[in-house]
Specification:
Blueprint: H1 2-15, H2 26-45, H3 53-97, H4 101-109, H5 115-126, H6 133-145, H7 150-165, H8 173-183, H9 190-203, H10 210-218
């Protein structure tokens, strides 16, 4: 429902670019034009006694002509607005469903240029301190598409997990589990993982300095691999 309202708002916004001077309502133009044609035809075939018959018939013909002009103008405006609306709807549908094959081709040919996307994706996934199975599968799929080696992806994940955990200068147990889980594929021993945990427990009040700063420095950036 909200999506439909948003679509209608965007459609109205685009159509507003075509707004001209204020005009009589299209339906009123059509109705008035039809009424004028009817009255004009009546005067043509049944001239009144206000003026001479010839004059009344000329007036009736003028009213008929004016009615056709008004009727045609109203119908033209209605059709024009419908055509514009249809064109914009088609353009909006194309924008929503189009696939940028050029970008896909560039990613496949030059995956190294887009590895920052993977690191940003890790940061977004770790931002809430929870890594769902869907997020894990999405990150793995993105790493495969970008041809990032598993060890490099693990380095990115570890660094992103640490950076995300230090944002509020407090590391929860859930965030600690994420950091350890991200670092485990690096091949660290249990003792090394335990030192990481202890570093956060004892030095977390000095973020990005001391042991924690040294630990961050030992995790290469994604470009270094």
């Amino acid at each position: 429902m909200a999506r439909g309202e948003g679509t209608e708002e965007e459609l109205a916004s685009r159509l507003s670019l075509f707004d001209d001077e204020p005009d009589i309502n299209d339906w009123f133009e059509v109705a008035l034009g039809a009424a004028m044609i009817t009255m004009g035809l009546h005067q043509l075939f049944n001239p009144g006694g206000l003026f001479e018959v010839g004059v009344m018939q000329w007036l009736g013909a003028a009213v008929v002509a004016s009615g056709f002009i008004l009727l045609g103008h109203g119908i033209k405006d209605m059709l024009l607005k419908e055509v514009r609306s249809s064109i914009i709807r088609l353009d909006m549908d194309d924008d929503a469903s189009s696939i940028d094959y050029g970008l896909i081709r560039d990613v496949l040919l030059h995956p190294d240029k887009y590895q920052q996307l993977l690191y940003d994706a890790y940061e977004m996934a770790y931002a809430d301190g929870i890594l769902t199975e869907a997020e894990r599968n999405e990150l793995s799929a993105l790493a495969r598409v970008l041809q990032v080696p598993e060890r490099s992806a693990a380095r990115m994940a570890t660094r992103a997990a640490i950076e995300s955990a230090l944002e509020d200068n407090h590391v929860s147990e859930a965030e600690m589990d994420l950091i350890v889980g991200a670092a485990r594929p690096l091949g660290l021993s249990d003792a090394q993982l335990e030192r990481i945990v202890e570093a956060f427990k004892t030095m977390i009040w000095i973020p990005r300095s001391g042991h924690v700063g040294e630990m961050l420095a030992t995790i290469p950036d994604e470009e270094e691999e």
